[in-house]
Amino acid sequence: MTAGRMQISGRQIFWIIVCAETSPMESVLLTPLFQTAKQDAWISMAVGGLAGLLITFLIMRTSLLYPKQTIVEYAQTILGKWFGKLFVIPYLVMALLGLGVILRQFGDFIHMALFELTPLWAVVLGFLLMCMYLTYAGGIEGIGRSAEIIGPIVIFAVLIVKVLNFSSLDVHLVQPIYWDSGWKQILLGSLATMSFVGESVVMLVLVPFVSQPNRCMSYTMWGQAISFVLVTGSVFLVTSIFGPNLAGRLLYPAFEMAGFISIADFLQNVESVVVVLWIFGYFIEVSVFLFVTCYSLGQWLHLKDWRKSIWPVAAILFILAVIPKTLSTATIEAPRMKWTLIGIFINIVIIPLLIYIVGYCQRKFKTSVKMS
After folding, report:
1. Can you cite a GO biological process for this protein (predicted)?
2. Rounded CA gap, 100 and 197, in Å?
3. pLDDT digits (tens, 9 = 90+) for 191-222
4. Residue 34 is assigned to a structural domain of this protein
């Protein structure tokens, strides 16, 4: 089972990152930020974005050590068969738990916004089946082509919503800057972005599928940078419209901000457009993570066809998504849990850094031996 059979372009990687990060961050990240950093939430978002770019750079450098192999393969190449397989287990666990949380977040939002009388499990199941179909039928190529179509629409609509809200801004609600929160609360708020920065770990598996791996770094970094800029702008606008206290009590501040738009009593109910865009973003995010999880699990178990793992993985994800009893468990509490942040930090910083150092030293040693 090799990655060479499916290929995507660097441009498609860019749009996958934009879709997978912009919509989910705008939907569920804002409330924890406001509750922690108040009116300085936009600074926390910016700090988290810069940290995210550094982490993405580390992940990409690690992947480019062996650009034709996924982490399941090069972890065994660098660390040996058994240690390599052992180091991949945290990623499989994180992918399953993370996807379960993402599905529940999506289900809660759609249940609240559109289908209040529909059972939550039906919303989650219907969406999961669509993602399964795209993953099974199209693989990463189908996901890449879908993101290439959906991505520009998402960015355009997000920018339009921001422009239409300019008339409602009150910059006094953002003041005073820094003094009420201090650097500790700002840094603490930026930790909430860790659960979304972790999405860049998909590149540990996707690099071998990119037709030009050497250009993958720039496309990935630009995709994440644009996502963080867009979401930072949303945080600033929400603060300027609702104020930090009210925004911290709203479950979906960006959604409420879109509902605040009213131009000449003609252009209203824009929040319905936001719902559709967030559905698109979640669709790409869940699909790409489902592919990465199933493909990695297939490699880890040495399956001849990685698609055989889709059904059991989907069954586990459905169970995980419907377990939380309250709406805020997956949306607010899960991204801020101490063990969640520690686990994500280990997966996106410690393990890639360890693999990179060992792999880099091995390559240097082999080069010196050949030269001698």
Report:
1. spore germination
2. 17
3. 777 666 666 778 888 888 988 888 888 898 89
4. yes
The model's pLDDT over 98-152, given as tens digits with 9 standing for 90+, comes to 888 888 888 888 887 777 788 888 989 999 999 999 999 888 999 999 999 988 8
Instruction: Report how far residue 347's alpha carbon sits from residue 98's, in angstroms, rounded to the nearest whole number.
Output: 12
Does the residue 371 lie in any domain? Answer: no
Would residue 30 count as lying in a domain? yes
Task: Give the C-alpha separation, 357 to 353, whole Å.
Answer: 6
- Find the domain containing 289 and state its range: 3-366
Q: Inform me whether the pLDDT recorded for 321 exceeds 70.
A: yes
Number of independent structural domains in the chain: 1
Q: What is the pTM assigned to this prediction?
A: 0.87
Token digits for 223? 């995709």
- List helix spans (H) across the chain: 10-28, 30-37, 41-63, 71-79, 81-113, 120-164, 182-190, 194-197, 203-206, 216-242, 244-249, 253-259, 271-300, 310-322, 327-328, 334-336, 338-345, 351-371
